[in-house]
Design goal:
alpha/beta; Rossmann fold; 9 strands; 10 helices; 6-stranded parallel sheet; binds pantoate
Length: 282
């Protein structure tokens, strides 16, 4: 496994690899690998000749009161895990490498960034879109792999790729869960024992809502209330949002119809957890 810190040396290496007509798969991450990351890496390995993983805790996607400093950084164990997965290249750029002094250019995806997480994390998707655009220009992968857990991020990046004519294909991998249903996340490590036990109610409530929606007609607002009730009765979490959205456009809906997503965000203490479920409504 090759490790690069500089864009220039990575690009020099990739130039040689691309001359051999190799297909390139790319998995962007912020490190602290869990099974969700590993499953994306495996998918890329299966489908490409060469897989690159980036590890960069991107400061521009964190708000001033968010967990940028506290975000887990585990270079040693990440290197070992990536090696075990036979990853060809890890790219660990520094903040200076990605945002040299004088940096002034950002990408803003409109509309679909204004609700859900975007309503509460003001410049979050601007930071995500900008850093991902930079990675796409640096790596120029044939395919990039993202997780369904960050469903709004996946939609935003897909939109940007389409709108700005990037030639990379985007593939979304399913959310990987613990045995009890909790979605894998680097932030789960911050949960106390009690919070960890309670956190299973996020997916439980989403599954119950899906079952309810598939049984007979129900309004999105009532489904959202059902989820809030389950979470409030079983946990001490504070709910930031629970929203039913159109599974094709990501926009909020007044009636359930066809492909539907229910997305939620909660705080267990200071730890913010998100999850979602996708289904076809009756
Ligand atoms: O999902 C993440 O880990 C990050 O938002 C990403 C896509 C690597 C951009 O920093």
């Amino acid at each position: 496994m090759k490790i690069f810190n500089s864009t220039k040396s990575l690009q020099q290496h990739l130039k040689k690899e691309k001359a051999k007509n190799k297909s390139i798969g790319f998995v962007p991450t912020m490190g602290a690998f869990h099974k969700g990351h590993l499953s994306l890496m495996r998918k890329s390995r299966r489908e490409n000749d060469l897989t690159i993983v980036s590890v960069f805790v991107n400061p521009t996607q964190f708000g001033p009161n968010e967990d940028f400093k506290k975000y887990p950084r585990q270079k040693k164990s990440d290197d070992l895990l990536a090696k075990k997965e036979n990853i060809d290249i890890i790219f660990y750029p520094s903040i200076k490498e990605m945002y040299p002094s004088g940096f002034l250019t950002y990408i803003e995806v409109e509309d679909i960034t204004k609700h859900l997480c975007g309503q509460f994390r003001k410049n979050h998707f601007k930071g995500v879109a900008t850093v991902v655009a930079k990675f796409l220009n640096i790596v120029k992968p044939h395919t990039m792999y993202l997780g369904q857990k960050d469903i709004q991020q996946a939609f935003v990046i897909k939109r940007m790729v389409q709108d700005l004519n990037f030639s990379t294909q985007i593939k979304i991998g399913e959310t990987i869960r613990e045995k009890d249903g909790l979605a894998m996340s680097s932030r789960n490590a911050h949960l106390s024992k009690t919070q960890r036990k309670e956190a299973i109610y996020l997916y439980k409530s989403l599954k119950m809502a899906k079952q309810r929606a598939q049984k007979s007609t129900i309004k999105p607002k009532r489904l959202e209330t059902l989820i809030r009730k389950i979470i409030n009765e079983n946990t001490k979490a504070s709910i930031q949002y629970v929203t039913c959205i159109d599974g094709k456009t990501l926009m909020p809906i007044k009636h359930l119809h066809g492909r539907t997503i229910i997305a939620l965000a909660t705080y267990f203490g200071k730890t913010r957890l998100i999850d979602n479920i996708i289904f076809n409504a009756r």
